[in-house]
Each structure stands twice: as C-alpha cells, then as structure tokens.
Amino acid sequence: MSHEFLRFTGALVLASLAMACGDDKVEGACSRKGEIDRSALDSGATVTLSGELGEVELLFLVPIPNHGDDDDLQAELASAVSFIVTSNESGATAELSSEMIVESTPAASGEWSWELDDDRNVATITFFNGAGGPTLDPSDTYEAALSIATNEYIEAEDWFTFTITVVED
Fold first, then answer.
1. Which residues, 6 or more positions from 167, have their beta carbon under 8 angstroms from its beta carbon?
2. What is the pLDDT, as a whole number, of residue 125?
3. Where would you tag: which of 7, 35, 108, 166 has the fewest CB atoms within 10 A of its CB?
C-alpha cells in the first residue's frame, strides 16, 4: 500500500469519528468533556442587567458533550459547580444554589436558570436581581470565584477568581 493511501484512510477515519459525534455516543474523540475558557474569564465577565434579571455568558473551549438528556446534565452540574460572587465594596456574598434552579424565567430572589446554545459552547446564566435578596449594582465592583468538581460533562477546575463588571441593558 502507498503512504498516500494510508494517509487518506487515516484522515477518512478521523473525519468519520468527528462526524459521528453528537447523539451517537461514540467513545474516544467524542467523549471529551466540556472545557471552560479560562482565558476569557481572566479578563473578567460582564453581567448585563435588564429589569429584574441579570445575565452572564460562560464560554467553553470544548463544547459540553450531548449525552441525550440535559436533565442529567443539570443534575450532575448542580452538585459539581460552585459559584460565589462577592461585592468588593460591602463584602456581601451570594452563591448560586442548586436548589434554586428553575426551568422558566427566574422570578424570585435566589432563582436562576441556564441554557446552552445550539453548539453547546456557550452557557447563558440568567438570575433574579430584584428586591428581596442580594442584587448586583452597576456602581459596585465584584469578584467571582468558580470551581467545578469531577463530573461527566465538564473538566474539573480548582477554585479560580475573576472580576465581574455589571452593566445595564
């Protein structure tokens, strides 16, 4: 066999594996976990306030795998992800609690939801930022801390911090 034929065959196999990703549950190349884009967070994150809602996007270098049921993903991440925001001015701290995840638009203090884009490489977190609980204010500065314990969907991350800028829509 020629070297060109072997290279072509190898490229064809890799392309087939890449195209088989998604709902096929192929092992190997498709079994990579999502990976947070830490370099994007090193420069900080922006929370956009619109009325009583706040929204922030979390980017992934490697998309979160699709194992077919995002209810399993939500349950797994609820126990794996820790996210704390602290006001640099007052020292007040708020932590997203897994018990307050809602399926619809957050409407009460402590409620939040999340959604993945179609490519599964951007997670949008929406939270209630109205009366009755801690709120983010554009005139304040904030520090966030994030860690991810071992799970089946996203690579584990030790605690790391980044700044949060709050803007109004």
1. 46, 47, 48, 49, 138
2. 92
3. 7
